[in-house]
Each structure stands twice: as C-alpha cells, then as structure tokens.
Amino acid sequence: MSFLLFSIFFAINNTYATSSSKANLSAVYIYKLAEHIQWKNSAQKNLYHFHLVDKDNQIEDQLRKISQIKKLHEKELKITRSTSDNIPNNVDLIFIAKNAIEKYSQIFSVTENTNILLISDNLKNDRIALIDLQENSDQSISFKINKANILNRNLKLNPDIILLGGTEIDVAKLYKEGLQNLQSQNQLLNTLKQDVISHEARGKRLKGDLEKTKSEELRLSQQLLDAGQKIHQQNSEIAKLQKQIEKEHVELETLKLDTQRIREAIAQKNEVIRNSEEKYHHLKLDIQEKTKILKEKKQQILLVNDQLEKQEATISYQQKLMFLLIIIGLLSMLLLIITFIGYRNKKISNQLLEKNSIELAQAKIIAERHALAKSSFLSNMSHELRNPLNAIIGFSHLIYKNPATPANIKEHSSIIARSANHLLGLINDVLEMSKIESGKSELYQEDIDFCDMVRDVEDMSRILVEKKELDLIVELSPACSCFIRADASKLRRIFINLINNAIKYTKEGVISVRIKCEPIENQEINLVCEIEDSGIGIAPEHLEKIFHPFEQITKTTQRKDSIPGTGLGLSISKELIKQMRGSISVESKQNVGSKFKFNVIVSQASCEMNPSPCNISQLSIGIKPGQRIIRALIVEDIGDNRAYLENVLHHSHCEVMLTGNGEEAIEAFKSHPFDIVFMDIRMPIMDGIEATKRIRQLPMGKDIKIIAITASAFKEDQEKIMLAGFNDFIRKPYLPEEIHNCLTKHLQLEFIYEGAGESDNREIKFDIHTELKKLTLTERLDLKSAAMALDVEKTLNIIDIIKVQHPELADRLRIFVDNYDFARLRSYIEE
Predict the structure, then answer these.
(1) What CATH number labels 444-604?
(2) pTM, entire model
(3) DSSP helix/strand/coil, 91
(4) Segment 683-702, tens digit of pLDDT
(5) Measured CA angle at 824 (ends 819, 825), to 5 deg
(6) Is residue 235 exposed (0-12), middle (13-18) or buried (19+ Cβ within 10 Å)?
(7) Does domain 619-753 have CATH number 3.30.43.10?
C-alpha cells in the first residue's frame, strides 16, 4: 500500500516538474505533507486553516485549486496569506516561503507551545526546522523532517511521509554542534571575566590615589573659605537687617496708601448705589401715578355709561306719548348715537390702556435692567475688593507672626488687619442686603451640629464680652436636638448679629441668651431664642425703625454718642428669620435694657455629619519633620495674591511654580508633575473653571487635587465651582492656616498646631529641656550665638553636628529654624 502511494505521488511530482513552475510543485508538496500529519483536536475541527507567509501569490492560487478538487482529511481547507509575521487565529499550518524566510525565527518562537505545523522553504538552521522543503539541482523538490520538533507540538507523524522523498534530520548531530558552540562561548566568557577583574583592581588603586589628593585639596580650600566666610557673614547680617527694616517701612507706607484708596473707592461705589436706588424709586412712583390715572379713566367711562342708561330711560318714557312712527325713528337715531358714542369711548379707553400697558412694560424692563446691573456691580465689587483685602489681611498676618518684626510694627499690622476685617464685614452686609432686596437670597439646607454651633458663637461672643467686662450667660434647653437640618451660615449670622447688637449697646451688666426647641409635625422643630441685655434700651417710637436698613437709634444725635456700624445687622436678621418661616419681636425700656425674641423652623437631622471644606480650626506653628516635599502650582493673575500664597506654601514644605492664567497653568501641568493646584476663578485669557475642566481631561489630571481660590461671596457660585471638578474651595481673603488645613486634608501633610494637645506640648518642652542639658557647653553657646545673630545657615550647621548624637533633638530644633522662630529657640537654650 505504501509503495502504491509513493508511486502515485511521484507521478504527480514529475508531472508538475515538467509542466508547472516550482510554486505549483511546492503547493502539491504542502498538501501531501499535510495529509501525513494528524492534529491533536482534528475531530472537533470543521475545516483546516493554512496560512502562507509569502510575498508571491502563486502557491496560494495553486493551493486554492487543489482544495477545490480534494478535501484534507475529509474537511474543507481555508487558505490565507500575508507578507508579515502577524499570525491570524486558529491556524493549523504555516508555510514560510523563501522570500520571507527571515521571519521564520520569530514565527517559530511565537508558535512554540502551539499545535501549529511549520513548513519552511530552504531554511538554513535545522535545529528550529519542522519540515523544510529543499530545491534540488534538477529543479525537483525534496524535504527534511525534524521529528523531535514535530512531536513537541503534539502533532502525530505518519511514518510513510518519508516515502514522499524526504530525509530525517540527525538530532544527535545537531546536539553535538550546539554543545561545541556552547563550550566555545563559555571559554570566551571566562576570558572576558579575567579582563574585567584586572581592570577593576587597577581602577580601585587609581580611585584611592585620587581620593587622597581630593581630600587634601578640600581641607586646604575649607580653611580658606572658613576665614573668608566669618568676615563676610558679619557684614552681610548687618546689611540684611538694615534692608529688612527699610523694606518693612516701605511696605507699611504702601499698605496705608492702599487702605486709603480702598476707602475712597467704597465711598464712590456707595454713591453709585444710592443714585441707582433713587432712579428706581422715581420709576416706581411714575408707574403708580399712571396706574392711578388709568383707574380714574375707567371710573369715568362707567359714569358715562350710567348717565346714558338714565337718558335712554327718560327718552323712552317721553316717546310713549308720541306717534309710533316718530318713536321708532327716534329710537333708531338714539341707538345709532349711543352705539357711536360707546364705540368712540371704548376706542379712546383702549388706546389709553394700551399706552399705559406699554409704558408699564418698559418701566418693568428698565427696573429689571437696573436690578441686574446692581447685582452684577455688587458681584464685581465683591471680587475687586476681596482680592486686595486678601493681600492686605494675609501679609499683615505674616508680618505679625514673624518673630523678627518689632513691637510697634506688629501693632500697626494688627490695626491694618482689624480694619481690613471690619471692611470685609461691611462688604458682606451690603451684599447680603442686596440679595435679600432682589429676592435672590436662598436657603441652603444642610445637616449641622447645633450644639457645636451654639458653643462656637458663645466662644466668639465671649471675647467681646470680656473686653467690656460684661457677663454672658447662654442657656440651651436639654430638649434641643444637637443635630438639625438648616442653613448653617444664615442661622449662625442671626445669632451673631443679635448677640453683637446686645454687646454693642450694653456698657455694664449681663447679656442672657436662652434657647429652647418645640417639636412640631413632619420632623420639624420650632427653634425659639431670647436675647436679653441690660443696655441703654430703645424708645417706643423707635422700635419699628431699628429693623429698617441703614437705621441706627442712639441716645442722642451727637457724633460723640453714636455707636459704629452700618445699621444693617437687625434688618438682615429680620429678613433671614422671615426666610426661615419665623418672626422677630423686641421689648425694651430706656436705661433698663432690651429683649429680642425670634423663632425659626428647622428640621430634625441624622447624627452623621458631612465633612466641611478647608476652614480654620487651629493655628499652625510649624511642620512636623521627616515629610515629603509637596509640589504645588499657583494659578493667580494678581501679583500680590500670588506672592502671598507663594510665601505661605514655601513655609509649608512646598516647591512652588507660578502662573498667571488658565492657559499657562495647562502648559505647566503638561510639562511638570504636581501634587496640588491652587486655582483662582476669575482670570484673563482663560478662567479657572475652564482650565480645571481641561486639566481633568489630561492623562495625569484625573486624580490631581485642585483647590479653588474664589473671591465670590455667593454660595451658589461655590456650588458651581465644586460641580466643575474642584476638590475643595477657599474663599478670599484667607489666612495661612486655611492653606495648611487644606494640605493636611488632601495630602496628609502634618503640622504642629498652637494649643492643640497641651499634654503633647508639655512633652515636647520636657524633651527639649532634657536633651539640651545633654549637650556640651560649647555646643549650647555656639547654638545660642547663632540664634541671637539670626544666622539660619550657621544654626543649621550646628544642628547637623548635634544630630550625630541627638537626632530627635536636632529634628525639633530644625522646626524653629524652618519657621524663623529664633526667639523661642533662644528661650529654650537660656532656660
């Protein structure tokens, strides 16, 4: 049987050799060789897939012709071809033509653990061959078989395949050749290792000689540098102190001028607001007068109609006495006259009504434009005033906190900060009153800890009370739930306004605050509060005026007896209480005192509270040692605010990059990695909201922390900011502690806080005193001398020496130097 198959195949071979090309003969061999191969999962196959890696399509065409004539193992044959080494899925056989034989090694590696048969054309490397077709000198074709490689791929080989004219590759010979090649490579590797060892030994000798030379050179250079630095340091310290004093004096004069300009600008803005309000009032009066005229015209028309009806009745009575024909004629004439008169009067009335309606609509449009302009003006004014106030309050705070600042300068900076904060309060009052008048003031309900709010208000008020040597008593009913749902900022404002009002008008005695809660239906609570003082009291004729905007009632009209304020606190409180479905009343006797009573409706809340934004909680006095450096990007168009924030971040262990608008921020973000971005909202070219949206679309922008720095006082603007993709917001003006708390909240940067954990402070103080006593006398004297000279570099050098024996003490001493707190460092050394 085998002999019969062999004869038939070679008959075909000879036929193709004489009448067809080598490509046709190769196609026949591929097909016949595949008939002698059995694949592992052949029973589950619906067809066999042959893939050719060939730049020519002749073999592909011939295989397609053969597949149409005869099936392979009773199954259809699928033929594909490519010129690359990309292998399609579910391939059973791959033929690599001679024109693509360089791709064989890659294909062999990719298919090594598969069930794929590889047939090559004139492959030189027998070790990786499976079946290789060889072209003989007489243009006939033979083949070589590497049986081991075929069996490794779980392919079964029919022994009769050799009868097709092939030979089996000698595996033992291949193994010996590979072993000899490996031995020669090992010998070469050993030779290279010996060369490397000899070169390394020589390098070590040369390196030792070089280090000796360098150490001697460094020793001599250090002696020269030490002598020069001592003289240079003394001169530079004197110059630094003189420049610092001159700079602070110039900054103080600049701050005074800026404050004066701000006051003048506010006066001008207030004048514009008053003019707009007067125009609005005149328009309103004009509309009322025209409406009144319209009503009078309507009344006149009704009177005329009544008179006509009476005349008609009289004429009708007289006509009964006349002849029927005359009566009919007169009635017809009267009807025509009445119809004409009625039509004319109605037309005149409609014209007047239409004219008045047009005027009324125009007046309404003008009023709405004025209201919109007023709202826009106030929003812009808030932004324009809060930006310079941010720099004023921030830099005055930094000057005050700097231990090197003289006492008189500290007092001046404190006055500047107080004045700026007072101005900020006035701005907030005017904005709140404007929102109330325009009907844009809305309640923002949230879950709050009411007991905690009352304690906060009490703590703030107690500072003012103690200054005036008054007593403050706060009584919170046990029936009041600690967790309620209400507008926290507005409720807190009501309490602060009314308590501050009581403190303002009380010279001696007691201020009592009594709060109780009355449950009502649907989980709602009627919150009732009484605030009673022993102040100057209010005259009966003035009780209603105190709730009018900008009204202040004092004992006399003399300027010396007037009490500072805008007269907006009570009017704002009344409107906010009305918004919260409550009311307010007052009882007062002159020279006895006043009692304000109000109630608001709130809801019961759950005990779980939402986290708050970056607010001031404690005053930070330094950074805990051993923390990573934070990379921060500042995006701010105003130079003063940019400089202030840069100063705060530099003292917060941050590397800072500055940009002036959104476009610059995006470019900086693309080229530098950052941990956090502080983004101003209103900027030229591209604002902060658009810049944040674009950063979030960048690959590294999804997880970056972006903090909004906004000068807006409106809560709806803050909600819009958070929805735009910001992680948090800080409202201008802000203090360094708000930035510190933000870094702690979002990047886990740890600070040391003033007054936080007295036991911890005592422990730190005890540790420092104990460790300082362990230093030598020379070390303590050198450290004290450097601290008194305010020499940062020298102090840090001494601390580095101390760190060898006392690492914990060195870390804590470095905190004082990082915060430029030499005064406290000296106090510890002297004690």
Answers:
(1) 3.30.565.10
(2) 0.41
(3) coil
(4) 999 999 999 999 999 988 88
(5) 80
(6) exposed
(7) no
